[in-house]
User: What shape does this take?
Amino acid sequence: MRSLRALRGLRAVTSTALSEYAEVATRSLTTVPDLKSVLREKIPEQQERLKAIKKQYGSKELGKVTVDMTIGGMRGITGLLWETSLLDPEEGIRFRGYSIPELQRMLPGAKPGGEPLPEGLLWLLLTGDIPSKEQVDALSAELAERGKNIPAHVDTILTDLPPGTHPMTQFSIATLALQPESRFAQAYAKGTPKKDYWDPIYEDSMNLIAKLPGIAALIYRNTYFGGNKIPHNPNLDWAANLAHQMGHDGEEVYELTRLYQTIHTDHEGGNVSAHATHLVGSALSDPYFSFSAGLNGLAGPLHGLANQEVLRWLFDVTKKIGQEPTKEEVEQFVWDTLNSGRVIPGFGHAVLRKTDPRYTCQREFAQKHLPDDPMFRLVSLFYEVVPGVLLKQGKVKNPWPNVDAHSGVLLQYYGIKEENFYTVLFGVSRAIGVLSQGIWSRALGLPIERPKSITMDALERKLA
Ligand SMILES: CC(=O)SCCNC(=O)CCNC(=O)[C@H](O)C(C)(C)COP(=O)(O)OP(=O)(O)OC[C@H]1O[C@@H](n2cnc3c(N)ncnc32)[C@H](O)[C@@H]1OP(=O)(O)O
Ligand SMILES: O=C([O-])CC(=O)C(=O)O
Assistant: This one.
């Protein structure tokens, strides 16, 4: 039933009786229209739609820009077109209109009722359709094939870096080291016309996404296991292959990896990693350049690196006041952190004004699989205490936890203890969102990004 509903969304199927199609699809994977074919069919319609929006609404206002907004990191300015997801401050993220709980029900899992396979989310972000299990399995197989070999020079470059190089530095460098493979750079150099850009951008994006589990595992095994590598397993799905090549096997850790890799993919267009990828891509830098730029932004402690910071902070608590602190001790610890001029990692958000649904679904995973874990209990205690303290302090616009407040504790439980590595896992997932949008940005022919800036002198002259 689920696969029939999903197939219904495919334009390629419209001329074929659904029951007949479903039967053929279950007989042979090769008859399922592949992701690129489905996407190719959708592009002209969306190009026309954008043209019509420009024609009809091009001169309408979306809001005003105040000096506070200009000084305050452009907060509240709607200045980007981003198709793959939309963030509601109260409700949280929706991917192509679907909330996380909806996707946990609707996207195919490795087994019925399991966590969504990130390949399914990739399909959804690119096409707007919920894929069938057959389509997801075919995409898994395609990614496994595209990702099975990491060029040897990437390992050489990484192992030549000084010991102690942060895994995010390695990740950004490894991504750039793949850039010579760019099909888009080659196609552009040959004079490919603008209308065809999306095709080599698609190829680069899929090749890069496919290779990321191998790259991340390479960094992990080089950094923490003396370079003792574990080969790619062509029979595993994309996320399970990531855990497997890192050396963490078992159905539960695979399920966590599938969930983690699904929920971190996309958070509309204005967050630092998405915006950086989009900005650099708008200059027609290829996906390797643009995603590497996004990773450099994700590596900041106010953005993706906060998951590493949360873990360190939790360890700090346990070192100072033990594994089972009281509410009062935690409250004091939070005040001490604030009074020392630091932020509480994992809390607050630039747009969200409620608990992040990505936090909630990780909490539900923990309640199901590790309800008695002491670190989970500690995280839950912080959930009870921190918002009240932040509200009392009166500075933050959102006192609630974000995605980064929870992820590290789950990873710790399954033996992924190296917190410096956590942002790499975030980055692997983020590729799915930002590169999907990158394909659409080129398909829609979006222009180079170039907002206007202003000096204080000019501001005073203009407004005095
Ligand atoms: C995947 C992600 O990127 S999710 C975010 C991950 N980052 C973190 O968890 C780091 C902690 N959180 C923060 O630093 C912030 O909440 C951010 C960066 C996420 C958002 O920043 P903003 O949009 O500027 O938040 P907001 O408007 O609420 O900030 C107002 C004030 O409260 C402070 N504040 C915001 N969050 C916190 C926090 N968690 N702890 C202490 N102070 C905070 C800000 O630093 C700012 O102080 P200032 O006026 O002295 O400059
Ligand atoms: O939306 C943001 O600014 C930060 C965030 O949660 C993300 O990028 O996942």
In short: The two ends are 65 Å apart (CA to CA). Residues 1-29 have pLDDT under 50 and may be disordered. The CA atoms of residues 456 and 462 lie 10 Å apart. The longest strand covers residues 85-88.
